[in-house]
Amino acid sequence: TLAERTNLAGVQHILLVLSGKGGVGKSTISTELALALRNAGKRVGILDVDLCGPSIPRMLRVQDSAVHQCDSGWVPVFVGQDKAIALMSIGFLLERPDDAVVWRGPKKNALIKQFVTDVAWGDLDFLIVDTPPGTSDEHISTVEALRPYQLLGAVLVTTPQ
Amino acid sequence: SSSSGDEALRDKRARILSRGLPKQKPIEGVKQVVVVASGKGGVGKSTTAVNIALALAANDSTKEVGLLDADIYGPSIPKMMNLKGNPELTPKNLMRPLKNYGIACMSMGFLIEETVPVVWRGLMVMSAVEKLLRQVDWGQLDYLVIDMPPGTGDVQLSVSQNIPIAGAVIVSTPQDVALLDAHKGAEMFRKVHVPVLGLVQNMSVFQCPRCKHETHIFGADGVRDLAKTLGLDILGDIPLHVNIRETCDSGQPVVISQPQSDAAKAYLKIAMEIVRRLPVTPA
């Protein structure tokens, strides 16, 4: 099947981290969740689709890393103490970590599709998808691109305010 | 000759490309527009925008101030300004802004139910922002404060391409990941030729209400360092205080409900610093 031949074929469960509101801790929780699952012996990947404010590379101290190409597409950056968590973020594609990404929807959609289909994730138990605030292009495109795969569900993060 | 042919082709291409971009046109009756942005979510843009609008009016009672909530996805202004309801339409089919505390307000939140999400792609958002800018009967305003959504995308581009902006205020907490986004926000304004008036360091320090011990929950002085790097001024420093959040949640922002408090005074000072940095307009 098409799914078997794609880069997400080896991913067992996909988990979205959403909030609506900004600044409530989506990236922090995505990162800690990934580390906790790794601690529990799972194979984990993180996909950071916050194109305007990618925080995860900095949180895992890999903001200066670069991504490489392989036969099946981009090779994710491996992070964590045992370098076993796969991470993909637009942060790795910028020339400088503080370059601004000022794009309209269609360009964002194109990159998100690529992040979903052209990253060689390998065999993962969990792929955690960190999203930006809002309910916009990034979210619509991510869900649409992930629809053919095992989308486990979403975790909603909020503060009491 | 071929070189004049090349130049003619370049000119034609430039003209065709520029036809696609919206023409920048001021909003009728609005003298100066100040945008409050950040890049990062949850650093206090709306809280700051609301209190700045109130402070601008409090500092000079002769000035008329408006507040536009451009956060289409998560409009906070209705709650913070204690306003609800659908806007009326004028005979010219413009929406009448809702007013409270003397400030004219418009928000996506007035046009949809509180719990209904706006799950729209960029193109629809662009047209919604146009409506909130141009199809509102703002009247005569000295200042229009625009509360931006987080990010550096469609809304920010649409607003800055549509109307002339007198200045941008960038809000950030001292936290590293917030500063990273604030830096991107500042660069975005540079790209679209909007002058950045300065930075506001928000949630800078927390003082325990019992023992008065101070904790820099989000780090210390990060915004000052960023300001230095970018060559920008710090317009003000606002502590993380329960009062500020509580008063906003209850629709009585601190500048109005506790004008003698340190927090209110901090916002009044920021408003003063903003006015000092804006170009002087003809009366």
TrEMBL record, chain A:
One Pfam family cited in the UniProt record for this chain: ParA
MF GO annotations: 4 iron, 4 sulfur cluster binding; ATP binding; ATP-dependent FeS chaperone activity; metal ion binding
UniProt protein name: NUBP2 factor
Alphabetized CDD domains for the sequence: Mrp_NBP35
Keywords, sorted A to Z: 4Fe-4S, ATP-binding, Iron, Iron-sulfur, Metal-binding, Nucleotide-binding
Keyword check for tRNA processing: no
UniProt keyword Hydrolase present: no
Signal peptide location: none
Any Gene Ontology biological process: iron-sulfur cluster assembly
Name of the gene encoding the protein in the UniProt record: Nubp2
PANTHER family membership: CYTOSOLIC FE-S CLUSTER ASSEMBLY FACTOR NUBP2 (PTHR23264:SF19), NUCLEOTIDE-BINDING PROTEIN NBP35 YEAST -RELATED (PTHR23264)
Species: Machaerirhynchus nigripectus
InterPro entries: Mrp-like_CS (IPR000808), Mrp/NBP35_ATP-bd (IPR019591), P-loop_NTPase (IPR027417), YlxH/NBP35 (IPR033756)
Superkingdom, taxonomy of origin: Eukaryota
Gene Ontology cellular component list: cytosol
From TrEMBL, chain B:
Keyword Transit peptide in record: yes
Principal subcellular localization: mitochondrion
Gene Ontology BP annotations: iron-sulfur cluster assembly; mitochondrial respiratory chain complex I assembly
Cofactor: [4Fe-4S] cluster
One of the record's GO molecular function terms: 4 iron, 4 sulfur cluster binding
Keyword flag NADP: no
Subcellular location: Mitochondrion
SUPFAM superfamilies for the chain: P-loop containing nucleoside triphosphate hydrolases
Stored InterPro entries: Mrp-like_CS, Mrp/NBP35_ATP-bd, NUBPL-like, P-loop_NTPase, YlxH/NBP35
Keywords linked to the UniProt accession: 4Fe-4S, ATP-binding, Iron, Iron-sulfur, Metal-binding, Mitochondrion, Nucleotide-binding, Transit peptide
GO annotations of cellular component type: mitochondrial matrix
A Pfam family this chain is assigned to: ParA
Chain's role: Iron-sulfur cluster transfer protein involved in the assembly of the mitochondrial membrane respiratory chain NADH dehydrogenase (Complex I). May deliver one or more Fe-S clusters to complex I subunits.
Family: Belongs to the Mrp/NBP35 ATP-binding proteins family.
Name by which UniProt lists this protein: Iron-sulfur cluster transfer protein NUBPL
Gene: Nubpl
